[in-house]
């Protein structure tokens, strides 16, 4: 249940203005790293309403073995089964670094200066819990830090987080 993602993007754009003899160059570099992990058959009692059974440990073991056998048979037939089957926990973590800058080349004066741009860091972990076929809960947190390349802007940090409850009708 593991997944990794690495993405690297690089671009360059040039725009020439013959009116004021200026060449604008925009350079962008971005790297995205992602990681995901899926846990199957996770039981969170306060979310699912399941209770731990009291009694001898031998009875518990026998009942758990029966549940596992039933789940395996239902999975072979394509069904979801009863018990803990279908309660999956999916963890994801994404990190992004982006460097974006625009330079103005004044060809007649020989001046080379940045006119705009920023450096951005983004972190976004999340966890999704599939309660049953139709209902899922998702916890997320997003962090973004932007630092400008010119003195016209100021550093900015944005954070957000929350819980998303999804119910599918079909």
Structure commentary:
By secondary structure, the chain is mainly beta. 15% of the residues lie in helices and 58% in strands. It has 2 helices and 6 strands. The chain has helices at residues 45-48, 57-77; strands at 2-17, 22-39, 89-106, 111-130, 135-148, 156-167. A 6-stranded antiparallel beta sheet has the order 1-2-3-4-5-6, with no helix packed on it. The longest helix has 21 residues, at 57-77. The relative contact order is 0.16. The model is unreliable at 74-84 (pLDDT under 50).
Summarize this structure briefly:
The protein is mainly β and 170 residues long. Helices cover 15% and strands 58% of the residues. It has 2 helices and 6 strands; from the N terminus they run ββααββββ.
Radius of gyration: 26 Å
Strand content: over 45%
> What is the overall pLDDT average?
82
Q: Which structural class is indicated by helix and strand composition?
A: mainly beta
How far apart, in Å, are the first and last alpha carbons? Answer: 26 Å
Strand order of the largest sheet: 1-2-3-4-5-6
Major beta sheet, specifics?
6 strands, antiparallel
Low-confidence runs: 74-84
Principal-axis shape: elongated
Number of helices: 2
Instruction: Tally the beta strands.
Output: 6
Order of helices and strands: EEHHEEEE
Helical percentage: 10-25%
